[in-house]
Design a protein that fits this description.
3-stranded antiparallel beta sheet, Pnp Oxidase, Chain A, mainly beta, binds flavin mononucleotide
Length: 173
């Protein structure tokens, strides 16, 4: 599989835009933008996010006890750009507060999912951070979506009669 074809194909799969954060025992905060967030298991409640093994934040996350997934709202594209930028202080804007489990979080996030680190699985050039969900926050804010290499706001236009019944692997969601 050619790398460009793989990238183009996956660019057409919409994904959530998240900023994943952690803090070490000395109070040093780390965070990165990620679209690779997904649910994994209902019992126990597990989620995952994939982190590039070469990222400057990789050691901080694979060695962390906890992390927080901030699912961004439609007006937080600037935060996503900032937490993807290299060589800058991503926390300098001061928009992060102590949230669930004392982790750095965005008050305006659409959803926050606070996890204890359950497992780290190496997969190619990424590490899969699997988190056990400990606490969540849900708002009614419209989420930001990454699609076709752009940030988009979902239309939230349900198709009548098209609500899945038993199609989801996590029944009850
Ligand atoms: C829209 C978007 C989605 C991203 N998704 C991921 C991801 O899922 N996993 C990941 O490791 N990096 C992802 N990145 C890249 C990281 O945010 C970050 O730029 C990268 O880790 C390089 O950071 P470094 O300077 O700390 O090494 C994404 C970047 C953008 C803009």
């Amino acid at each position: 599989m050619e790398r460009a074809v793989f990238a183009r194909t996956l660019s057409r799969v919409p994904g959530p835009v998240t900023v994943v954060t952690t803090v070490d025992p000395t109070g040093r905060r780390s965070g990165f933008t990620a679209t690779s967030f997904s649910s994994v298991s209902l019992r126990p409640p597990l989620v995952l996010v994939c982190l590039d093994k070469g990222a400057s934040t990789c050691a901080a996350f694979t060695g962390a006890q906890r992390f927080l997934v901030n699912v961004l709202a439609h007006d937080q594209g600037g935060v996503a750009h900032r937490f993807a930028a290299s060589g800058v202080d991503r926390f300098a804007a001061g928009d992060m507060e102590r949230c669930e489990l004392g982790l750095p979080g965005l008050p305006g996030a659409s959803v926050r999912v606070a996890c204890s680190l359950y497992s780290v699985v190496g997969a190619g050039d990424h590490d899969i951070l699997i988190g056990r969900v400990m606490k969540t926050y849900v708002s009614d804010r419209t989420p930001l979506v990454y699609y076709d290499r752009s940030f988009v706001r979902p239309a939230l236009d349900p198709i009548p009669g098209d609500r899945p019944t038993n199609a989801l692997h996590l029944t009850g969601w």
